[in-house]
Design goal:
The protein is α+β, with helices and mostly antiparallel strands and 423 residues long. It has 13 helices and 21 strands. The strands form four sheets. Strands 10, 11, 12, 13, 14, 15, 17, 20 and 21 form a nine-stranded antiparallel beta sheet that branches. Strands 3-2-1-4-5 form a five-stranded parallel beta sheet. A four-stranded antiparallel beta sheet has the order 6-9-7-8, sandwiched between helices. Strand 1, helix 1 and strand 2 form a beta-alpha-beta unit. The structure holds adenosine monophosphate (AMP).
């Protein structure tokens, strides 16, 4: 099978590594890729925003499957353009990607199909939103409707914070993403991420993960794209997984199909495990980054076979096997992230890795043959172990061998799960 992978981050490096292990793979391209991905796939200089150019490349090179890593090209309709040319693609149509692209769309689907989620209202007027917030009281959650690079959500512990967040949205702090606002009940519990493939009609559960969004140890400081993750999520017991499938995922697949937007790709469900059970916080329509990295470390099955089955409506014929081990990843970022940081700083050394260890490239480039950091999040130092504590110790032992002066990381990834193991 000839495959084109779209993307250039740590998530795509993890997908590339796993896809490259498939005996079915005959030719592998990545656009644009990165130095880690280039160990597995030929980089192609394609403008991924130019959808017709991507389609032409696929037709000329007889690509059998396109795997789209990030959400932006999906929301922009890349999968639709490819499908119109009969090219198999792993990733939803623009209409189905509204599950991530519009919080209001998802909340309305939940309401129609009885999917457990926080009570909510949608607003396009600040005064009405404020009146509702005053009536409901704090804590309460204010969300810009559209894609706001993870920044459009305010979990307001006071009424004043909620009112200020409404002003921010309508004053354009999140651009057009904030033209509509969702106000949602605060959910109390432990968060977990659940991943599941869909081919439009069938669901195939993958695995669970937990991440750390804050930049500082002890989950303090500003929010980031994610500073580390581990899989599985201890809070996702077999009962919670089974309830998530029947109460959240299956009605979503039905709802999307009934609405004329069958969903092909991966559901990344952000859940709150409350006293009532799993409740949906949000959907993403692609693998999480860095959750994907820990999932790929634990996947024993052929990833290419699974993604191809999802893309071609044959998910009922495949199964996914997982290692019982824990995988944990530590994100190494450029000093200053998530604020401003220097670009192009040299990464002098990456350590050799053994089985069960991988360093994924998230934001690197080669400059005159030398590896440099180009992004905020730069490396995903990943290891497996029989316990979270063991995976954590192995990952940090590798971190300590990375020579990159401008890099930093949190030192406590997995702390909650490690504390749980010790109890
Ligand atoms: P989202 O972008 O919708 O995932 O929200 C970002 C983060 O805000 C989530 O990961 C949660 O930590 C938090 N959050 C979102 N919605 C709620 C809610 N209804 N109750 C409590 N926390 C929430």
């Amino acid at each position: 099978m000839k495959v084109l992978l779209i993307g250039s981050g740590g998530r795509e490096h993890a997908l590339a590594w796993k896809l490259a292990l498939s005996p079915k793979l005959t030719k592998f391209y990545a656009a644009p890729g990165n130095p880690g991905i280039a160990e597995h796939a030929d980089p192609v200089a394609l403008d991924i925003d130019d959808h017709p150019a991507v389609a032409s490349f696929c037709l000329e090179n007889q690509i059998d499957l396109v795997v789209v890593g990030p959400e932006a090209p999906l929301v922009a309709g890349l999968a639709d353009v490819l499908r119109a040319e009969d090219i198999a693609v792993f990733g939803p149509s623009a209409a189905a990607a509204q599950l991530e692209g519009s919080k209001g769309f998802t909340k309305d689907l939940c309401a129609r199909y009885g999917i457990p989620t926080g009570a909510y209202r949608r607003f396009s007027d600040a005064a009405e939103a404020k009146a509702y917030v005053r009536e409901q009281g704090a804590p309460i959650v204010v969300k810009a409707d559209g894609l706001a690079a993870g920044k459009g959500v305010t979990v307001a512990m006071t009424l004043d914070e909620a009112l200020a967040a409404i002003d921010d949205c309508f004053d354009g702090a999140f651009g057009s993403a904030g033209a509509e606002v969702v106000v949602e009940a605060y959910l109390d519990g432990e968060e977990a991420s659940f991943f599941c493939l869909s081919d439009g009609k069938t669901a195939l559960a993958l695995a669970t993960a937990q991440d750390h969004k804050r930049v500082g140890d002890g989950d303090t400081g500003p929010n980031t794209g994610g500073m580390g993750a581990y899989s599985p999520a201890p809070v996702m017991t077999p009962e919670m997984v089974s309830r998530t499938m029947t109460e959240i995922i299956e009605p979503t697949i039905r709802g999307m199909a009934d609405s004329g937007y069958p969903f092909t790709g991966v559901f990344f469900a952000g859940l709150m495990i409350t006293a009532k059970g799993p409740e949906l916080i949000e959907y993403n329509v692609r693998f999480g980054d860095p959750e994907c990295q820990v999932l790929m470390m634990r996947l024993k099955s052929d990833l290419l076979e699974l993604l191809h089955a999802a893309a071609t409506g044959t998910l009922d014929r495949v199964a996914a096997e997982w290692s019982d081990e824990v995988a944990l990843t530590v994100v190494m970022a450029s000093k200053g992230y998530p604020g401003s940081y220097d670009k192009g700083t040299p990464i002098a050394r990456l350590p050799q890795t053994s089985d069960g260890e991988k360093i994924f490239h998230a934001g690197t480039a080669l400059k005159d043959g030398a590896l440099v950091a180009t992004g905020g999040r730069v490396l995903n130092v990943t290891a497996t172990g029989r316990t979270v504590a063991e995976a954590k110790a192995r990952a940090y032992a590798l971190v300590d061998q990375v020579k990159w002066e401008n890099g930093f990381c949190r030192r406590d990834i997995g702390w909650r799960a490690v504390a749980r193991e010790q109890n």
